[in-house]
Amino acid sequence: MMENPGFSRPEPCKLAPLLRRPTTHWSTPVSSWLARSEIFRRRLANALAGITLCALLSAGCGAPPPPTLGVDDGELAPCPSTPNCVHTGHRHPDGTRPLYLRAEGEGSWDAVRTVVEAMPRLTVVSVSERYLHAEERSRLLRFIDDMELLLAEDRELVVRSASRLGGGDLGVNGRRVERLRAALAEAGLLAPSSPPGGG
Question: Which residues of 140-152 are buried (b: 16+ CB within 10 A; e: fewer)?
Fold first, then answer.
């Protein structure tokens, strides 16, 4: 059989790229799209995490002082129903022990202020003859908690420690009150858990 002189058979090596081209044409865009989608997903997750953190930081730093701060009718405000507050005067929560200052010494209130000012991250905001208000910021998110001290007539040192935000505090306020108790005891300012001279 004679071949057409005007027709030349393609060489096998020249046909190979043509046969492989459809596979390369479809597989490369798909794999590239999957890679780009994974990168986008990771960047989106990081961006959302950053936005959430910024919102938390802004809320913590920007939370205004609650209107319940201060002395009303000779007492500190009661704790709310949420478990993020400790009130030694109301023995809240159950099992909270009171604090009493020793009767002797006219400078005991000034000594109490000195103890509070020495506590880490606590800043005294205002102080009067029998009332003290201090703020503490958390290490990471910079949330603000308020600690109030009121010296009652029977020398009871009423302490109220509360978080400005959230419904719980993971025990932070309770530990803060106990740190204050320990610091006052170390300074020799505390009397037994009953009014001085009351038995």
Answer: eeebbbbbbbbbb
User: Are the C-beta atoms of 128 and 113 separated by less than 8 Å?
Assistant: no
pTM exceeds 0.70 for this model: no
Show Cβ contacts of residue 139 under 8 Å, excluding neighbours closer than 6 positions: 121
Helices (H), 71-190: 108-118, 172-186
Question: In whole angstroms, what is the distance from residue 78 CA to residue 81 CA?
Answer: 9
- Per-residue pLDDT of 109-149, as tens digits, reads 999 999 999 999 999 999 999 999 999 998 777 789 999 99
- CATH T-level topology, domain 71-186: TATA-Binding Protein (3.30.310)
Task: Supply 148's token pair.
Answer: 């109030």
Domain positions in the chain:
12-62, 71-186
Helices within 104-171 (DSSP H only)? 108-118
